[in-house]
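Worked example 3 (structure in, sequence out).
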């Protein structure tokens, strides 16, 4: 088991793995549960510092907090699989979070508001209304017809030349309201023309690698 945990830690945090030194707030951990559930699933290693060194689970209360995060602070509830590993006298809690069959999974914040998150590399980002619309429509959209009129072509030309755009940026560029901007962006994502990514400034949309290649 020691080698198994060592190999996980050596790979570092990423899309499917997150280290937690401790759990002191179930609401914060619920964000990671939401992000894993809405993306590809993943594992949490509790009792591991950000640099990969072992700290160990400090008290039984952390077990209760992870359970509370999954059952009380996620909607729908997240079903977790947990295993404990003892390495050099320190207990490491491995928490496996499956990808949810019901997306989005939302996490309740400190103000009681329900927010949905997605995982990108080793970070969690809050989904905006475009992403929520994509999740809601995914698998239900059949024969989606795109009309490439002035606004749609304006968006594509901007993405080819500038690389990315936000919802407010697209709204201003095209002189349209938020609802229309969000609908066009979600249509383009569902058709595989564009994708989304998060950074410290918010959510941005860019051409998908397949559509942007050689353009």
């Amino acid at each position: 088991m020691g080698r198994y945990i060592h190999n996980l830690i050596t790979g570092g945090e990423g899309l499917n793995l997150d280290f937690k030194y401790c759990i002191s707030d179930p609401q914060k951990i619920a964000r990671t549960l939401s992000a894993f559930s809405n993306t590809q699933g993943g594992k949490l290693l509790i009792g591991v510092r950000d640099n990969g060194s072992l700290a160990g689970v400090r008290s039984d209360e952390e077990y209760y907090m992870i359970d509370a995060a999954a059952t009380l602070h996620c909607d729908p509830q997240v079903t977790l699989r947990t295993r404990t590993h003892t390495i050099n006298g320190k207990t490491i809690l491995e928490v496996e979070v499956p990808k949810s069959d019901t997306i989005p999974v939302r996490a309740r914040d400190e103000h009681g508001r329900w927010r949905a998150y997605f995982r990108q590399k080793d970070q969690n980002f809050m989904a905006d209304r475009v992403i929520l619309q994509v999740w809601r429509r995914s698998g239900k959209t059949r024969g989606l017809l795109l009309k490439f009129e002035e606004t749609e072509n304006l968006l594509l030309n901007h993405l080819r030349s500038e690389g990315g755009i936000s919802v407010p940026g697209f709204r201003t560029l095209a002189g349209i309201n938020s609802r229309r901007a969000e609908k066009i962006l979600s249509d383009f994502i569902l058709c595989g023309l564009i994708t989304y990514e998060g950074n410290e400034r918010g959510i941005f949309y860019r051409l998908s690698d397949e559509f942007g290649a050689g353009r």
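Notes: Residues 26-38 form the longest helix (13 residues). The chain has two domains: 2-126, 129-212.
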